[in-house]
Write a structure and sequence with these properties.
With about 160 residues, this protein is of the alpha+beta class. It is built from 4 helices and 6 strands, in the order E-E-E-H-E-H-H-E-E-H. InterPro entries: Glutathione_peroxidase, GPX_AS, GPX_CS, Thioredoxin-like_sf.
């Protein structure tokens, strides 16, 4: 059976990365968009990242343009927007589909190993423990600060 660590993903700068480099870390994987009502969540995500990154916590951002074309820019434009407007410093990956027949295989895995429901919108978040198990799924309306207790509990183990 596949694990989260079996996937290769392409960073927004074009470099391929094996997710096994994150073994032993708590991960928050989120599909993002630059022109969405939930886009201000980048601020909260960056705050979480700055608070916990030295405790083996990583956020992995995956831009998607599938929901009302709310991330139409190139990978370079997306990265520039995220850095200039929200100071995003956590790893961002290339724009990809998170639902449908052409969805990123990682997102197929995340959906199938959480509640099985298709991703409905931008900023769906998956919390993964240090063993690579998906332990929680948060919907777009769930703000990053609402995940603090769950993240802290995982970091204590």
């Amino acid at each position: 059976m596949a694990t989260i660590y079996d996937f290769n993903e392409t960073r927004i700068n074009g470099q391929t990365e094996q997710l096994d480099k994150y073994k032993g870390k708590t991960l928050l994987i989120v599909n993002t968009a630059s022109k969405c009502g939930f886009t201000p969540q980048f601020e909260g995500l960056e705050k979480l990242y700055q608070t916990y990154k030295d405790q083996d916590f990583e956020i992995l951002g995956f831009p998607s343009n599938q929901f009302l074309h709310q991330d139409p820019g190139s990978n370079d434009e997306i990265l520039e927007f995220c850095q200039m407007n929200y100071g995003v410093s956590f790893p961002m990956f290339e724009k990809s589909n998170v639902r449908g027949k052409d969805k990123n295989p990682l997102y197929d895995y995340l959906v199938e190993n959480s509640n099985g429901k298709a991703i409905k919108w931008n900023f769906t978040k998956f919390l993964v423990n240090a063993d690579g198990e998906i332990v929680a799924r948060f919907e777009p309306k769930d703000k990053p600060e609402a995940m603090v207790q769950d993240i802290e509990r995982l970091l204590q183990h």
